[in-house]
Amino acid sequence: MDLFEREDEMAVLEREARLAAGGQPRVVLVEGAAGMGRTSLVEEFARRAGRDGALVLHARCDEAEREVPFGVVRQLFEPVVAEWGPERAERAFAGPAEPATRVLSTVPHTGAAVAPEDDPLPVLHGFYWLTLRIAAVTPVVLVVDDAQLADAPSLRWIHYLIRKLTRSRVLVVLTHRGDETSDPLTALSLAANCRTLRPEPLTEAAVAGLLTHVWDQDPAPELARSCHRLTGGNPLLLRALVMALEGGRVEAAALSCDELPKRTVFLYAEFLADWLTGLRPRTREFAVALALLGESDDAGTPARLAGLDDAQGYLAEDQLRRLGLLTHARELRWTHPLVREALCRDLGGPRRAAWHAEAARLLFDDGASLDQVCDHLVPSAPSTDPWVARTLIAAADQAVRQGAPESAARCLRRALAEPLSPDERTTVRMRLGLAESHLRPAAAIRQLTRVIDDVTEPSSKATVAGALCAVLTRVGRGGEVIPLLDRLADELTPVDREISLRLQGLRIGNVLLSGTKNVPRAELDRMAGELSGRTPGERAVLAPCALAAALSGIPADQVAALAQRALPQTPEELSGHLGQGAVFALALTDRLDAADRHCDAALRESQRAHALPGPADLVDTRSVIALLAGRLDDAARSLEEVSAQLPPGQWGALRTAPMAVRLTVLNERGDTEAAARMAAELIAAAPEEADYLSSYVRFQCARAQVAQGNARDGLDLMLSAGRRLASTGFENPVILPWRIVSAHVHAELGEYRAALELAEEALEHARRWGTARALGAALHALGASTGGGRGMELLREAVEVLKPSPARLEFANALLGLGAAQTRHGRLAAARVTFTDCLVEAERCGALGVAAAARRGLRAAGARPRTRRATGATALTEGERRVADRAAAGETNRAIAERLHLTTRTVETHLSAVYRKLGISGRGELHRTLMAPASERAPSERAG
Question: Rounded to whole angstroms, how far apart are CA atoms 185 and 168?
Answer without folding.
Answer: 21
